[in-house]
Design brief:
Blueprint: E1 6-13, H1 25-36, H2 41-54, H3 70-82, E2 87-92, H4 94-97, H5 104-113, E3 121-124
Parallel strand pairs: 1-2, 2-3
């Protein structure tokens, strides 16, 4: 059964909502849990580390924005967006954020590893990028 997500809660993965460069990747993720769930720093850190470990990214926990590659930045943004529970996740032009040789399978496999419900995620992209989504296991809606 498809769960209804709160339309008032939206979490973005976008070039318009970048990671904070003065914080580590771990701190960027922790910030959401500390702010919205009022978790202690220790609890938020444990939660963030579990998500990084699920993607084999625990080695970037202490890295700053400038030290990470495009894929690590994107995945950290997706983890951060997922920290806001019951929010819809909007990913805007993912291949603008990632290296263009990647395909939608990276996004879908990451969502699976993080146990993100596919109905919670909306990917917005330009029509000329449609080829990057072909063969992927995602529903494409054209507007």
């Amino acid at each position: 059964m498809e769960k209804n997500y709160d339309d008032t809660l939206v979490s973005f993965v976008s070039s318009q909502t970048p990671l904070l460069s003065n914080l580590s990747m771990l701190e960027n993720i922790m910030l959401i849990s500390q702010t919205h769930e009022r978790l202690s720093a220790t609890q938020a850190q444990e939660k963030a580390l579990l998500a990084l470990k699920a993607l084999n990214l625990s080695h970037i926990a202490s890295y700053r924005y400038i030290s990470c590659n495009a894929q690590e930045k994107f995945l950290t943004q997706l983890i951060r967006a997922n920290m806001l529970k019951d929010a819809k996740i909007i990913i805007e032009q993912p291949f603008h954020l990632l290296d263009e040789h990647l395909n939608v399978d990276l996004i879908l496999s990451t969502m699976e590893k993080l146990k993100i419900d596919i109905h919670r995620v909306h990917i917005i992209d330009l029509k000329h990028m449609q080829a990057y989504y072909e063969g992927g296991k995602c529903l494409i809606k054209k507007y």
